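chain below, 258 aa
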Amino acid sequence: MTSAPRIRFTGRTALVTGGGSGLGRAIALAFAAEGANVVVAGRTEGPLKETVGLIEEAGGAAIAVTADVTRSADLAALVSATVERFGSLDVAVNNAGVLRAGQSVADLSEEDWRTLLDINVTGVFLALQAEVKQMRTQQGGGAIVNIASVLGTHIRRPGTTAYATTKAAVSILTKGAAAEHIQDGVRINAVSPGPSDTAMSLLPGESEAERTERMKNATPLGRVSTTAEVAAAVLYLASDDAASVVGADLVIDGGGAA
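prediction:
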């Protein structure tokens, strides 16, 4: 006997940045499967529309909004478009991010450093500002989940110091904002994935089969996490099941940081 699927987000609206591919798309699809109206945002329209199409094919409701998370005006417009279309912003997942790896601190270009800071840190900061300003006006408040990384406050690896620095900042930003805004009715947490089944976890020139072999000895679990497993953690933190979880940073990495 199989249990009925959980529908925790019926009547709620979930916004996912970086929703055009990879983990962001998986998170958007997971929210839609549990009844949420979904807004996917990113800089490139085509992939966003593909995500919307997948949601609509499954019977869900979604819209795509192009936005650059490094621009506060874009984020304000994104939140406005969300509320105008669906009436509220109940959940936000700040997933947009970039990886620049393979170089030491001394060899990383200033351009790459600034790109990492602008998107991974300032982008989350500006998104939080726009989202909290809307959520604290709503009777039910809202829930925000920031996507950090196991590379950051949890572990470090050579060649990823700059990226890890930005993701550590996301972890700290999450905890500070969570304490500051829980009295506004806004619950903020983070998920820190390790290697997951996305292109970001592939080494340069590495195939998925080669990654599978590498991962057998890379973590106690012996494999990458699926995007569905990471999405499940995000949905838990965004749901009423986690009503008393505030400022958490949930690591999903197969035991790599254990």
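The chain has a mean pLDDT of 95. The chain is about 40% helix and 15% strand.
thats it, cya
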